[in-house]
Hints:
Layout: E1 6-10, E2 13-19, E3 26-31, E4 34-39, E5 53-58, E6 65-68, H1 73-81, H2 86-97, E7 108-113, E8 118-122, E9 127-131, E10 136-139, E11 147-148, H3 156-164, E12 171-180, E13 183-189
Amino acid sequence: MYVGRFIVVAPDRAAYRVSSRSFPNRRVIEREGALTVAPTPDAPETDNPYISYNCLRTTEDGEAAVIGNGTQVDPIVEKLQLGYPARDALVESLLALDYEKDDYDTPRIAGVVGEESYVGIVRRDAVLVEAVEEPTLVATYEKDRPEAVDFEPTDAGAMAEELYEFDFEHPVCAAAVARTDDGFETGYYNGE
């Protein structure tokens, strides 16, 4: 089954996977304190604005981490740093940016891991934001409403690799974040 991009958010961790039929030449890289989805060196040139973006950032105070499939990650982090509650930062940013205006009306998905953890999606027909009590998956297609999922790893690198291996079609790369005693640990996996 092809579900597109998807995230799993739990109270203390989260992971994101890029799955793509159209733009598989991407990878996760570390850049300026964030994990960024970016084209591989051999990727064809494109002017598509949805190809490269920060998919994972933490707040400067180390109190929250944000994960998602597009540019909504940055404003969610900015709102959290301004003191917005996690739910409000997620809802306002998803509503403001709306679904992607591409050929598929691709939904935007995002999650916040912090004192309170949430997962959200904005689709053409709905905005759904839910508090997270257990690992919860939401995807851009097919599984486009939050649902509980089995997801055991707690190490960021292992989480990224396991999400990459989920039984959904066209994996490209994955990123993950886990709360530790010292803040947050991040990891990624590019299918190597």
